[in-house]
Amino acid sequence: MEARSQDGGVDTNCPHCSAPLTVPRIPANPYLRPIKGIVRQLKSVPFPFPYVPQVIQFTVLVGVLILFAGLFITIGVVSQIAGVFRGLILDTQKHLRVGSAVERSAQAVSIGIYSILFVPFWLIQMPFSLIGSLWSSNRLGALFTTTLLLSIIYAITLYLPYIVRFLHSF
Known about the structure:
By secondary structure, this protein is mainly alpha-helical. The protein has helices at 32-43, 52-95, 101-137, 139-168, and strands at residues 2-3, 9-13, 20-24. 8% of the residues are buried.
């Protein structure tokens, strides 16, 4: 097997028909590197007497580690699954340009199936990607935008029964 750097896949042959096949790699979980850094910091906390500052530092690091572990399990796994489906869609699009009409229609159907499976994971991941891209481009503006969007969502959920009752009155 040979790794292809352009799409992160592995070239292999089909075990049944020996046709060339590309198996997409599972992308790395984005929270793995911060978790390793926090664990490294936890191991390096010295415990000389008095222990109070070190206990506070250790407690804060454990709290951050628990937060990142929750993100690793939820959003990290979702981003990995979305990355696999995206890789499958892109690889199938490359194969769509060659072959007979029957093969191309099968590839088109598989792209549709992969896209349908990709959408829920993309929808879960999208708000976090949006906030992350806003934060990396403009930190203060992202904080304001995120606060504004969350307050609008809160206002809609708070007044939703009144809005529905008003719309049903017509």
